[in-house]
Specification:
This protein has a single domain (2-53, 60-254), classed as MFS general substrate transporter like domains (Growth Hormone, Chain: A, Up-down Bundle). The protein contains 12 helices and no strands. The two termini are 33 Å apart. By secondary structure, it is an all-alpha fold.
Length: 255
Amino acid sequence: MAFISTFIRMIGPGLADPLLAIFSYTSTLTIYLFCLLILYICVHFLELPNKVKKKEQDATTRKDMKEGIDEFFRNKTLLTPTITVLFMNFASSLVIGVLIFFVIDQLGVTSTQVGLMFTISAIGGLLGASLISSIRKRFGRGVIYTFSLLIKVIGMGCLIFAPTWWAIGIALAIRTFSTTISNVVYFTIRQKLTPNHILGRVAGTSSMLMKLTLPFGLFIAGLWAEYLPIRILFVISMLIFLCLFIRLFIIHFEG
């Protein structure tokens, strides 16, 4: 699933530029709307097994949320990587919020080069999705998850000094490689350690928590870019990833 998702994200930017060149922005967004409509139809007619449809008669949304939150916070093995992802998302939002404006305004990159840049970035995700199974056979999940953060640090370090669009694409590919690996490991841990009957509630709770910092990071990045050098944001993001790596390294190897 990670491989297919990353592959689609890889070809998307490559298709976006010729679509914008041939059609207008309005027409391209209409294509996007049409794809969403197809998605809605597919989900609407999705058939689930009867055993999944059955629920307790007294179940309510509030009760489901409470059960998911209680189980999530009881699961200390899942809590630590979730909090890590919370800060990872914040660090990433500092970059994604201003990256497009940075490469276009300060590096003079064209729309075609932006598409190619994100295509190169997605290649890292394809490699991560392809190699995670073989990597998992040699190393434990804790080791993989911890050192994926170190790879992020390396990717951000390359991004700080990247002078061209293709160098930025390579830096993003390194980061996407580590992100894909860490995501697969995290979702595996969550599914393995959570009872099946409350997996959806726990997944919803953890996903909600992980996304809390994204708007905050985007807001900070936007304000920062108005008055201060954007590359300093990349440095801050790298330092956050470095602190997270050191924390997980201490927990895993000395805890």
